[in-house]
Design brief:
Structural class: mainly alpha
Largest sheet: none
Keywords: Membrane, Transmembrane, Transmembrane helix
Distance between the termini: 29 Å
Number of helices: 8
Number of strands: 0
Order of helices and strands: HHHHHHHH
Strand content: under 5%
Transmembrane segments: 12-29, 41-63
Length: 152
């Protein structure tokens, strides 16, 4: 359960994407049975896209879990410290991982108040860099910091 609680947003998005992809693949297979080749190809392309998104979300969820473990060790060792939490503030998924680690380390209220003081609310879903530049998803530095937390 900790794995799911550390990154609820990527796991929920990945699950929904996989379900949509499975539905499209099922319809494409039915079209194959009816020998509608063009229809099958048209449905398999978006189905593979949805499955690809599900894989990306799963990778992001795994990265958030690793970040949760790292943050939990640091909070257990040093206690609540804003300098530990600040690097994780710019993304909702990272804040969720930090909040789960703070809950288990016993400093959830201070962590929640700190993120609230920075101006983050529940509806701030996209990372700050993506809000500033929507093409940031294609930047190698963004991808590296997303999927390799703690590495520089």
């Amino acid at each position: 359960m900790r794995y799911l609680r550390a990154a609820p947003l990527p796991h929920a998005t990945g699950g929904v994407s996989a379900l949509i992809g499975a539905g499209l693949a099922r319809v494409a297979l039915e079209a194959l049975a009816e020998e509608a080749l063009a229809m099958r190809l048209l449905l398999f392309m978006p189905a593979s896209g949805w499955f690809g998104l599900a894989l990306l979300c799963g990778a992001d969820g795994l990265s958030r879990y690793r970040e949760y473990l790292r943050m939990r060790r640091m909070l257990d060792r040093w206690g609540f410290a804003p300098r530990l939490l600040r690097p994780l503030a710019s993304s909702r998924c990272q804040r969720d991982a930090a909040m789960q680690a703070a809950r288990e380390a016993g400093c959830a209220d201070k962590t929640r108040a700190y993120y609230r003081q920075l101006g983050y609310r529940w509806y701030h879903l996209l990372p700050d860099r993506v809000v500033a530049n929507p093409l940031a998803f294609l930047d190698m530095r963004f991808l590296r910091t997303t999927f390799l937390p703690g590495k520089r």
